[in-house]
Amino acid sequence: MDIEIGRGKTARRAYGIDEIALVPGTRTLDPSLADTRWRIGGIEREIPIIASAMDGVVDVRMAVRLSQLGALGVLNLEGIQTRYADPEPILDKIASVGPTEFVPLMQELYAEPIKLELIEQRIKEIKSQGGIAAVSATPVGATKYGSVVAKAGADLFFVQATVVSTAHLSPESVTPLDLAQFCTEMPMPVILGNCVTYEVALNLMKTGAAGVLVGIGPGAACTSRGVLGVGVPQVTAVADCAAARDDYFKETGKYVPVIADGGLVTGGDICKCIACGADGVMIGSPFARAQEAPGRGYHWGMATPSPVLPRGTRIRVGKTGTLEQILRGPAQLDDGTHNFLGALKTSMGTLGAKDLKEMQQVEVVIAPSLLTEGKVYQKAQQLGMGK
To answer: Which residues, at least 6 apart from 114, have a Cβ–Cβ distance to it below 8 Å?
Structure first.
């Protein structure tokens, strides 16, 4: 229902992850029976979680380890890994400067040209160690580097920007990326994003996308919502785009997974997004806390190094455990940021959902007090959900 916010201007109420709760049904099941498998671009994974293509989150080692653990990591082709043959001292420098020097340093470091040979090298390094080589570039980067990625034999290509649409207007001097042609010509599946509306998600699916990323600005290190004022709360965005997926499947028989990207910190957040229709999720800051992560305990947004309008920042996330503890446990923390797979399976068991399709059908209620109700002592002592 639209709400009148002023004469001649109405607005639709939208909901974020913290405003909803999942309702148990008439049955429960043992968590060991919950099937969390999903497929993206023909690749099956046990864990429906993708690590974001951010320089503080995924490098070659992380991509390989995520693959080994049953998940997936995406390498940023326009980041540190493809600008410097040895990124280690660069990452040390990023972690060492103060807040005021950070953005100018990032703009300087990311001014180093991207090297085509490093793109090919990183992809081959991941594949040679048995990892799934998933890579990401902006639409402009996809135009420049698509042929190199194809030659190197990447398994998945993510074309990502703050907003991606099929109706992009460019100056006469610039030829925009033809998304449909790109999806057709690339030898591997192409995932497109980001979007937050039914119409755009449906159009991206019609271009041949093998998956659609949903989310504008909810990420822990992203400041797009503050800088641009643009975005839709994640629960509403996911539900709308999942509706586009279902309608597209009914029309064509082709199922295009929807991936909730950004704003997910705990296992509960992941469960809620899947319950609202997501097939999988993409997360950054929780993986930046892994001991193996390249960010040295820091996490920063993909648009942070922009030379003209940075739309991200660097946040201190610390290191809380190994990647295995974060993904599969055993949990060493009580706040929902460890053992995501265990949280998902336990939630599915509590809700009686045997697989992800059943999880997408569970009842949801509006519950803005869910995270604060009865939690006075946790909040006062900064424990558990009160951190």
So the answer is: 77, 78, 82, 83, 141, 145
Catalytic site residue from 183, 222, 271, 273: 222
pTM of the model: 0.94
Are 195 and 212 a contacting pair, CB within 8 Å? yes
Largest CA distance in the chain: 61
Told to judge if 195 belongs to the known catalytic residues of this protein, a careful annotator would answer no
Name all domains of the chain by residue range, CATH numbers in brackets.
28-386 (3.20.20.70)
Segment 17-44 mean pLDDT: 97
Half-sphere exposure (Cβ direction) of 30: Cα atoms closer than 13 Å: 2
The rounded Cα 324 to chain-centroid distance in angstroms is 19
- In tens, the pLDDT along 94-107 reads 999 998 898 899 99
- Segment 216-227, tens digit of pLDDT: 988 777 777 888
- Tell me the helices (H) and strands (E) count for the chain, helix number first: 16, 16
Convert the pLDDT of each residue in 307-326 to its tens digit. Answer: 887 777 899 999 999 999 99
**CA 228 to CA 261: how far, in whole Å?**
18
Block residue for tokens 């890994």: 81
Determine whether 222 is an active site residue.
yes
Torsion of CA 290, 294, 300, 303, to 10 degrees: -130
Q: Under a CB-based contact definition with an 8 Å cutoff, are residues 364 and 274 in contact?
A: no
Alpha carbons 270 and 49: distance in angstroms, whole number = 9
Beta strands per DSSP E along the chain: 2-6, 9-12, 20-23, 38-40, 43-45, 49-51, 72-76, 134-137, 156-160, 190-195, 211-214, 258-261, 280-283, 298-300, 314-316, 363-366
The residue from 13, 27, 37, 316 that is catalytic is: 316
- The sign of the CA dihedral 323, 300, 123, 149 is positive
